Amino acid sequence: MKYRTHIVTSVAAGAGVVTTTDISFTFPYVIGIALGALIPDIDEPNSFIGRRSFGLARLIKTAFGHRGITHSLLACFLFVLLYQKYPSDFTLGIAIGYAFHIVGDFFSKRGVPLFSPLFKKKMKSPLTYETGGSQETVLFYIALFTLIYFLYEHKLYLQLLS
Ligand SMILES: [Zn+2]
C-alpha cells in the first residue's frame, strides 16, 4: 500500500472505531492515526517515512528486512503498551493507525509476517489486492468516501473542531 492509502484507510477505520466506542474523534487522535499508519514502513528506505528517517530505515531494513518485525503483531502490541503507559488521544491514535497499517498490508498480495520473530512466514488474506495497482486506487476512494460518510453522518467533524 502507498502511504496515502495507508493514511486514508486507517483514518477511516479509526473513524469507524469512534462510531462504536466512546472514543472521540479529536485532532490529536487523527494525527496519531496518520502517524501510526506510516511508522511500520520505517523498514523501507524508499517509503514516505523511510525517506524522512535520516538513515534509520536503511538500518532497520538491513537488520530485519522490509515487512519484517515492524509488520508483526508484536510490534502492534508494543504500541498498545506505549498507549497504556502514556494514555492520550494521540498515543491511542498511533496504536490504532499502526494496527490498521498491518491490516492493510495483510490484504496485499505480499502479506505480512504476523508472528515474526517467532514464525517468519508472511500471512495474507484469502482475498488480496496488488500494491500500487488499480485495486489499490479503488480501495483508496472507498476509504475516502467511507471517511467522509462517517464525518458527516456521525457529525465527527464537530469533535474534530472541539
Ligand atoms: Zn507496510
Written description of the protein model:
The protein has 162 residues and is mostly helical. The chain has one domain. The chain contains seven helices and no strands. It has helices at 3-20, 27-38, 56-64, 73-85, 89-106, 134-153, 156-161. α1 (3-20) packs parallel to α6. The chain is globular. Zinc ion binds at residues 40-41, 67, 71, 101, 105.
Please tag this protein with its features.
single chain, mainly alpha, 7 helices, 162 residues, binds zinc ion, globular
- The Rg value, from CA coordinates, equals 16 Å
Total domain units: 1
How much helix is in the residues?
Answer: 55-70%
Order of helices and strands: HHHHHHH
Total number of beta strands: 0
Global outline: globular
Major beta sheet, specifics?
none
Strand residue content? under 5%
Bound ions, cofactors and other small molecules, one mention each: zinc ion
Unreliable spans are none
What do the pLDDT scores average to? 95
Helix/strand structural class: mainly alpha
